[in-house]
Amino acid sequence: MSLPNCFSVFSRVFQDDVLVDAMCAVMRQDAFNHSELQALDGRLANGMAVMAMGASTGCNSVYGSTPPSNPHPYPWMNSLFQDGATISWMIGESLIIHHARRSVVPERLCDFLLSGDEPTLGEGDYFDLTRMTDTAMNEQEIKELPKVWAVGGDGAFGDIGYQNVSKAIVQNRPNVNMLMMDTQVYSNTGGQNSDSSLMVGGFDMNQFGSFSQGKLCEKKSVAESLTAGHGSPMVCQVSMANSAKMYKCMLEGLEYRGTSFFQAFTTCQPEHGVADDMSTQQAQGIRDSRGVPEFVFRPQSGETYQESFDVKGNPSQNRDWWMTKYKSSGAEYAFTVAHWALSEARFRKHLKKLKDEDIKGMVHLEDILVRVTQNDVVNRSVFNRKHRAFIEDFGAYITHEVKGNLKHVALSRQMVLLAVERRKSWRMLQSKAGIQNNDYLAQRELLKNVDAGEISVDDLFARPRELMAEALAAVNGS
Known about the structure:
Elements: H1 3-13, H2 16-30, E1 51-56, H3 59-65, E2 76-79, H4 84-113, H5 123-130, H6 139-143, E3 147-153, H7 154-159, H8 162-171, E4 176-182, H9 222-225, E5 234-237, H10 243-255, E6 260-265, H11 269-272, H12 279-288, E7 295-297, H13 305-308, E8 309-310, E9 322-325, E10 332-335, H14 337-341, E11 351-354, E12 363-364, H15 365-371, H16 374-378, E13 396-402, E14 405-411, H17 413-432, H18 438-451, H19 457-462, H20 464-477
Parallel strand pairs: 1-2, 1-3, 3-4, 4-6, 5-6, 12-13
Antiparallel strand pairs: 5-7, 7-8, 9-10, 11-14, 13-14
Helix pairs in contact: 2-4, 4-8, 18-20
């Protein structure tokens, strides 16, 4: 019997008021209340949940849900490292079906029955109602979809579970959101390297000596990798460095008709060696030093990187480094990732305090950065004493301010390499956002002239920042 004929039989058996009362009772009990129940409200008093969470085993599941206590007031599950993303995706699929059957279809049927004196239901309507998916839902129905959050660390989402994240991202389901808490190490198993670890390594379990001081692998930016070759997800690299922006992006991601992914630098107090109240300050420091820059990738803004990428929130957006000043003297200096590293005990092996007289014969980090590129690191020229890019272990230093006094700190070779690599990564991000970095153009032209013999290596070593300033002036004037 067709659906219209069914309604005809029902109307002869039951009075209209009985049918209406029955429909109302079902909708009150099972359907989502559009005036009260939204994706952002949490949980209603009657027990209906508007979200679910799939956690990957790690710190987030240990500190957030150790049995018998579980603070999550919504459906929550914990899975192995690699499975959290795909299981969350499957939960999202089931929520779409549940939402269709319990909310969308009853409301549409009610609207249909109340639409006229003799309502008719065509075959297309019948097909949509009996096979309702998110494809046939309107924008309001999508916004009311219960959301699922997949939560994991850089190990779960960037290493062992990366393929699962990639698979789930490509599906671009409208109610799947992912949060990667980037501690840059396997925090709950001792602090060994992950792909997200910085070039100075994974610290507590990392070898350190004259031969090896970390790793030569560059940091893997999971968020950036998902902006290429992964369809149309909304991708954000944000953190508590700017909490208002992070929450704004999350609200935007919840309403985006596709999957959203958030990579957030997350301080691990014991592994990073920082105080419990320093998480926000550390997040700001690593952002400002180019260690983990902020960006938002909105595919809804256009079909080019320049339209989709937004790097607002980072200081000195068109420069290599944030140019700030010493409070005591007012002198300008570049705030590099090495300066930020001073604030975390995990880098202690890469930093040595110096007296004023100790810096004689040493080279300032800003001078070394003029003559070294990431390609020099790839080609291992930084280990060649005869090459302009050679870096002496603990031969470079930076100056920082402590209570109004300027102090000097020697840097391991690996810490200098980290600054080179993070600068390269930032330059790549700038180019995606359509920002021209004249510092890069000036350095490229300067080193081209040095390698061609037009400027001597001795001259480069004698006055690197002066030559860089001249090259920058030429670029700015062109």
